[in-house]
Here is the input.
Amino acid sequence: MARRRSPVLTDPMFAVVLARVSTAEQARGESLQGQLDDVRAYAEREGFTVEREYVERGDSGRSDNRAVFRQMLADLHAPDNRIGTVLVVHTSRFIRDAMKARVHKVALAKRGIRVVSIQQPVDDDPTGHFVEGMFELIDQLESEQNGIRTRAAMAATARAGYWPGSRAPYGFRLAEVTTTTGKQKNKLESNPAEADVARRAVALYLAGSGAVEIARALNAGGQLPRTGLWDRDRVLRLLGSRALIGEAEWGRRDSRTGLLRAEEVVVVVPCPAVIERGVFDRVQDERERRDPERVGRATSSRLLLTGLLKCGPCGASCELQTSGKRRPNGERYCYYMCSRARRTGVGATCNAKPTPVAKLDAAVIDWLAERVFSDVRCREILRDLVEEQGVLRHRAAEDRAAWVRERDALKRSRDRLLDAIQIGAVVANDVADRLTDIREQLENVEAQLGKVRVIGDGVPPGLYQSSIVAAFVERLRAALDTDRDFARTYLHALVEKITVAPDGTVEITSKQTETTGESARAATNRKD
Here is the structure.
C-alpha cells in the first residue's frame, strides 16, 4: 500500500525572519538591527505575519551546524508548523554553501516552505530557481574569497610574532599589546597553572606512565583541561605540542575540513618555553619507542570482535589497548578496553577493566563453534553440498559442451583450409598465418577442456558416517581458530553485539530471535 502523505498545513503568509552576522561582518559594520528593520518593513508592506525572529550573532554562514539555524529548521519541520516563508535580507544570510543551501531549501519546499530574499526577488518557477542557484554560488564564492583573505591576514599577523587566534594553546594565555602602528594584537604568555599541568604530564610520561594513566592522575587531582576531562588523545596532543618549547604552531590544521596542512604553510609563533627542548625531545623519542598509536591502529583492523564488542557497564564500544610491555616471545600484551574508559581513565566515566584479547576471542570462538558447527548443523551443511553438487555437475557439463563445440568448429575451419591447399585453390603461404592461429586456438581449447571435470552424480559412499561428520566438524572448527576472516564473517552474520561484564561474563546477543540472550562464560582473568 502506498504511504499517504500528511496534508501540507503551512501558509505562505505566515513567516519567520532569519538575521545573521559573522564576526568579520560585524567588524565591517554590518548590523543585525539593520537587517531586522529591513525585513520587518518588507513583511509589513507585503502583508506577511511574522511569527518569530531567529537572530545569529557571530556565526559563520559557511556551516549549517549553527544552534539558532538548527533550531529554526527543527521548528519548521515540526508536525504542527504553519509557517510557509522564511524571510532573509540576502541569500547569504541563510547559508554560504551552495550545496547545503540547495539541500535545506528542497527539504523545506517539501513541507511547503520557501526561503525569500527581500533584496533578490525571484519567481517561484524554474527560471527563478536557476537564478536563485546562481545567487547561492556567488555567496559561496564570496565566502571562500573572504576566507582566503582572512587567513592571509592572520598568517601575516602570526609571522609578525602575534597570535591571530582567539584561543591560546594549552599552557598559555593571550596578552593584549599595542603595536607600533597603534593596533591591538595578542601575544602568547605563560599560563602558570596550565604550565604546571603540562610539566607534570611530561614528568609522569618520562617516569613510565601511559597517556591513560596520566589522564586519570590529572583528573583525580582536579587539574582539569579547559573543558571536560583529560583523556588519552588530549594528553598525547599536549605531549606533542611544540608550544611547550616556545614554538607555537598556527595553521597546522584546516578548521573546516580538519585535515593537516602542508608544512610550508604552518607559521611558528614564538612564546615562552614551558619545558626544555632536550626534555621535549626525550618525550618524542619515548613516544616513538612505545608507539602505541601506530600499533593499536595496525592491529585493531584485524581484531576478531571489532564492531561487535560493547562495554558492559556503560555500553561504549571496545577497542584495542596495549600495555607497552612484551611477552618473552616479543608479542605485545593486548586487551579489549572500553573506549570511554581508555580515553578518560577507569573510574572517571566508567569502571570497566581490560580483557585479554586472546582469552576473549577464544571464548567467543568456542561459543560460535558449538552454536554453528554442531554435529546436526554440519550434517545439514554436508547435505546442502550434495544437493549443490547436482548444480555444479550441470554447469560443468554445459561448459564442456561449449568448449567441444568451439573445438569442432576450429577443426572444420582447419580441414577446409587444408583441403583447399590440396586441390590448389589457395597457396599454402597465403594461409599459413591463418593455420597458425587456428592451431594456437585449438591448443587453448584443449587446455580448457582438460580443466573441466564433470562431477559425478550421487552421494559419496559413507558420507554421513559419524567419523566423516566428526572430521568435517573438526576441520570447520580449526578454520575458526586459524582463519580470522572466516570467523569474523560468521560472527557478523550471526551476532548483534557482545558485551563483557566486570566479572568476566560474556553476553552474546544473536541476530536470530530464537537465540537472543545466549551467553557464555569467558575465562578472562585480568592478569595476562
Notes: DSSP finds 16 helices and 15 strands in the chain. The two ends are 58 Å apart (CA to CA). Residues 292-301, 513-528 have pLDDT under 50 and may be disordered.
